[in-house]
Specification:
Strand content: 5-15%
Bound molecules: zinc ion
Structural class: mainly alpha
Order of helices and strands: HEEHEHHHEHHHHHHH
Shape: globular
Helix content: 40-55%
Radius of gyration: 19 Å
Distance between the termini: 19 Å
Number of helices: 12
């Protein structure tokens, strides 16, 4: 599920330095392959489906169709996505962190016509966008996860669905229990930013930095495990992209948070929804 060390090192050589040039004719940002990456290295990446600058142009209607097809894929269940999340949380497979968020995005998504200008006010997908799929996957190999880059959910799901559900150990379950207990110790006025700092100081989450910890906490918020009062979590219901953006406007005034919803709306006094955590993770 994770590329081997050599593959990851090659991807890092291409993508970590952000050495890129804009290709005007194609209207896209292309990463420059450094001299240290040889022809043989590139062949290796290509053989693994990870050639640099692996561009694909996505259009709203066909992307939505592919997402809806994935929604009905037998393998893509809550159990599959939640198991992956536990492996990502434990730090064993950082790549596995995104899938639960992507699954929740699909949970209540349904067929519709594109509405809006550049991106759809209903589902948030762009009307048309060209993405370097290898770059997108590289960010997930590093252990990031986001509830914003919705097109990227398609790219990552089409990859992760090729893998089997990982076997979950007691150590994986304990890590989640530890994290939830730790979150519950928050003061009533603790913000998500302060929570992240507290987790960092306690060295509770392996293989993370500030933004990767936000991704993990954001996932718990989209599950409804970290509650908020501004927007329904994706686990519960579908919120249009326009409604999500409008709810986010309230954050800057009432919460002074630069963390997006639903995590941005959490406060220590809202605690942890234990019932929801049991619903999703018990039995895994
Ligand atoms: Zn849409």
């Amino acid at each position: 599920m994770l590329p081997d060390k050599k593959t990851l090192a090659l991807l890092k050589a291409v993508y970590a330095n952000e050495n890129a040039k804009y290709n005007l004719a194609e209207d896209r940002l292309e990463h420059l392959v450094p001299d240290a990456v040889t022809r043989a290295d590139l062949d290796l990446l290509t053989a693994r489906g990870l050639a640099p600058n692996n561009f694909e142009t996505f259009e709203h209607d066909s992307s939505l169709e592919r997402l809806l097809a994935l929604k009905h894929a037998k393998k893509l269940t809550l159990d599959f996505a939640a198991s992956l999340f536990l492996k990502g949380l434990a730090g064993e497979i950082p790549r596995a962190r995104q899938t639960l968020l992507s699954f929740l995005y699909l949970k209540h998504l349904s067929a519709h016509q594109f509405t809006g200008d550049d991106s759809c006010t209903i589902c948030g997908l762009p009307l048309k966008e060209t993405e370097d799929k290898t770059h997108t996957l590289y960010t997930y190999y590093l252990g990031h996860s986001w509830n914003e880059s919705l097109l990227n959910c398609l790219i990552e799901l089409e990859e992760i669905i090729q893998y089997d559900k990982p076997a979950i150990t007691n150590a994986d379950r304990t890590k989640l229990a530890q994290l939830l207990n730790f979150i519950e110790q928050a003061d009533a006025d603790e913000t998500p930013g302060k929570l992240e700092k507290r987790i960092a100081a306690a060295k509770l989450l392996e293989q993370t930095d500030k933004y990767k910890r936000y991704g993990i906490l954001q996932t718990l918020a989209e599950c409804g495990i970290l509650p908020n009062e501004l927007v329904a979590p994706k686990y519960d219901t579908f919120t249009t992209h326009a409604q999500w953006l409008a709810a986010g406007e309230k954050l800057t005034t009432s919460h002074r948070s630069d963390i997006v919803l639903p995590l941005g709306g959490w406060k220590g006094k809202l605690g942890v929804n234990r019932k929801r955590a049991e619903e999703i993770f018990d039995g895994i």
